[in-house]
Q: What sequence folds into this?
């Protein structure tokens, strides 16, 4: 698959980039995408929700009524879950939601996500993306030139660029990632994926795919 390389003004440079079919043109595996996204979200859960059980509730254990003759069930103490302020039955406790996923499944998921975006013409390749100084207005102008303003956009850089990162910080629904840290959730959560030319090669190296 070939894509025309554009500049920051939204104009075609006359150059083209060949996207590796083993990454950008495979049959997407929906289940692999589901598992990878599920793992990403699960691994980011804090798991700190906690409710006090009956034994942890700070109430008196005195008997509230007579054992017999009350006309109802035997009364418990104030810690009873059926009373207001009592303990919680089967309440949440701190836990670890994370789980492991096979490396090959994660790679398949990323390739599937990239293939989906490529198949829907939602990938743009830029020759470069850099600013002299962090400036939100400059990044907004670039997005206008590329006709992607107002969409969920993921910018993929070959290496860290603080000027670009800081320029997108105040733009809603915009994310910046380094190619080697690219994950399935970020790809699927974006409507458009804008890659710097050097990031394409970095993605191939990250996914262990040689040029065809």
A:
């Amino acid at each position: 698959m070939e894509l025309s390389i554009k500049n920051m003004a939204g104009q075609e440079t006359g150059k083209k980039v060949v996207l590796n079919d083993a990454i950008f043109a495979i049959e997407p595996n929906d289940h692999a995408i589901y598992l990878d996204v599920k793992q990403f979200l699960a691994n980011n859960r804090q798991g700190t929700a906690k409710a006090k059980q009956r034994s942890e509730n700070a109430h008196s254990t005195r008997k509230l009524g007579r054992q017999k003759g009350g006309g109802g069930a035997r009364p418990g103490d104030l810690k009873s879950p059926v009373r207001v302020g009592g303990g919680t039955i089967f309440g949440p406790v701190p836990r670890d939601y994370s789980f492991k996923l096979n490396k090959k499944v994660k790679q398949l998921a990323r390739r599937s996500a990239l293939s989906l975006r490529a198949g829907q013409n939602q990938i743009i390749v830029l020759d470069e993306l850099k600013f002299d100084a962090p400036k939100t207005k400059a990044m907004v102008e670039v997005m206008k030139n590329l006709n992607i303003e107002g969409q969920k956009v993921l910018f993929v850089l070959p290496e860290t660029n603080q000027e670009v990162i800081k320029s997108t910080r105040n733009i809603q629904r915009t994310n910046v990632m380094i190619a080697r840290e690219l994950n399935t959730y970020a790809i699927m959560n974006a409507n458009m994926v804008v890659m710097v030319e050097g990031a394409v090669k970095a993605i191939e190296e990250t996914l262990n795919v040689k040029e065809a």
Remarks:
- The CA atoms of residues 139 and 167 lie 6 Å apart.
- The radius of gyration is 27 Å.
- DSSP finds seven helices and six strands in the chain.
